[in-house]
Design brief:
By secondary structure, this protein is mainly alpha-helical. The protein is built from 18 helices and no strands. The protein is globular and about 80 Å long.
Length: 466
């Protein structure tokens, strides 16, 4: 019997958009998993904060809102798309053995995933992809589009049903017992990973991996993660079946609307669940946490769709601009702590009696001045982002080049203002506020153009399909 040997896909048959999104997803997964590389997965089970610093907690909240769940959802959607494309290619080249070949790949993935999760790092989810892939291969490959859409609807209903059940099942005594179990694992993790041998760490990983599947309540929680991944994997299966990645230009009018609404829903729900879970850190279910859980699921889906549909003029430059924006946002948020310091100094606390009133007033003024300089440091990153955005607008063809030039001039003005304030404060006083007038008019022009005129849709479509 002669069988064909699978070979790598020629570059001409690859979809560069999928490769780009896949790399972007891996970056986001790395950002989300970095805290798990140095701490126990059972940390914060009692409602405490792993990082006591206010700035760290703000950064943690932003990470949860913008990254949590979005990128493994993105990767699972890409898995669904890849399943459709790869299996179709196998069926064309070797229809008799296509199922066997793909199953063999999934089994290898499952073995590697279990080995990694049970020995090296408990956060590995490759075996989840493999198990869901087997379900696609034997259970859903021939399902109709309506069936896939119905299953996605059931996945979206799952957090509501599961949350309602938890309200009845999780009694205070049971919650306390679960917290005690989690604290025990956390203590074992801290002792073993910090001072134990490799074999002790591997043994603990294996015990925790077995706990996730053998303990009923833990398995219930982990099943929710399976449902989350299945939701976007089904979306990927539908997208691959309808060849949406190859029809971007044709679907651009609809994609633009979906893009905007995905951002609105993603950010609104992301902020909602972040605030709810931050204000309700006491362990155990509650109606408000049920709302937060639903918001989390919707945020995962909304932000994932927004990130995937973002296809700029120059992907590398746009991602660099996004990086500058994230750094600027983080620095400005941390800088707001300077404005909170005068409030701390104004309370009638015993430890403040070591200072005279004049000293307290001076410290409050120093904090306010530090905020001004910190804000200028944040605007340095915004200035570089304006230079990049201005170039992208200039090169895009679907927005006026004059606005792109104006945004770049604004970026230069922001950089001049920030550096002079830091290096030559007297010169900065002479330049301000005239130096920022070009920024005002450039940003106003861009906002008004987008609100009134919008982009040139045919040129947008041409650029998207290039």
């Amino acid at each position: 019997m002669v069988t064909s040997t699978p070979t790598s896909v020629p570059a001409s048959e690859r979809n560069p958009v999928l490769d780009m999104v896949r790399g972007f997803a891996l970056m986001g997964i790395l950002i989300m998993n970095m805290p798990g590389f140095s701490s126990s997965f059972f940390a914060e089970a009692d409602g405490s904060h792993l990082w006591p610093g206010q700035a760290d907690q703000v950064a943690e909240g932003l990470r949860e809102m913008l990254f949590s769940g979005k990128f493994n959802s993105m990767f699972s959607m890409l898995f669904g798309i890849g399943f459709t494309l790869q299996f179709a290619r196998m069926q064309r080249s070797d229809p008799e053995h296509a199922t066997r070949i793909y199953l063999r790949r999934l089994l290898v993935l499952a073995v590697l995933g279990v080995l990694h999760a049970a020995v090296f790092w408990g956060g590995d989810v490759l075996h989840v992809y493999a198990i869901l892939g087997i379900v696609l291969l034997f259970g859903l490959r021939h399902a109709s589009d309506r069936t896939l859409i119905a299953l996605m609807g059931l996945c979206l209903l799952y957090p509501v049903i599961s949350g309602l059940l938890r309200l009845f099942v999780m009694t205070p005594d049971l919650v306390a017992a679960r917290v005690a179990i989690a604290k025990g694992f956390e203590a074992a993790d801290n002792a073993t990973f910090g001072h134990g041998t490799f074999w002790q760490a591997a043994s603990l990983h294996a015990r925790e991996f077995a706990f996730m599947y053998s303990d009923g309540l833990a398995a219930w929680g982990f099943f929710g993660f399976y449902v989350q991944m299945a939701l976007t994997m089904l979306l990927g299966l539908l997208a691959g079946r309808r060849r949406w990645p190859d029809r971007i230009a044709e679907l651009m009018p609809q994609l633009r609307k979906v893009h905007v609404w995905a951002l609105v829903v993603g950010l609104a729900c992301g902020a909602t669940f972040t605030i709810i879970f931050e204000l309700n850190r006491t362990p155990g279910p509650s109606p408000i946490k049920l709302l937060g859980g639903v918001a989390y699921w919707l945020s995962r889906l909304g932000m994932m769709i927004f990130y995937v549909l973002f296809k700029p003029v120059n992907r590398n430059l746009a991602l660099l601009g996004l990086l500058f924006t994230l750094v600027q946002t983080a620095s400005l948020v941390a800088n707001k702590l300077n404005l909170m310091l005068p409030l701390f100094l104004s309370v009638d606390a015993q430890y403040l009696k070591a200072f005279t009133p004049d000293q307290l007033h001076a410290l409050a003024y120093v904090a306010i001045r530090a905020h001004a300089h910190g804000f200028s440091m944040g605007l340095i990153f915004f200035g570089f982002e304006c230079l990049i955005t201005g170039y992208l607008i200039f090169a895009s063809g679907f927005l006026p080049r004059a606005i792109g030039i104006a945004i770049q001039i604004a970026g230069v003005c922001y950089l001049i203002n920030s550096f002079t304030l830091l290096l030559a404060p007297k010169l900065a006083d002479a330049l301000f506020p005239a130096i920022l007038l070009p920024c005002f008019f450039a940003e106003l022009a861009l906002c008004l153009w987008l609100l009134i005129k919008g982009v040139d849709v045919p040129k947008w479509q041409a650029r998207a399909s290039a």
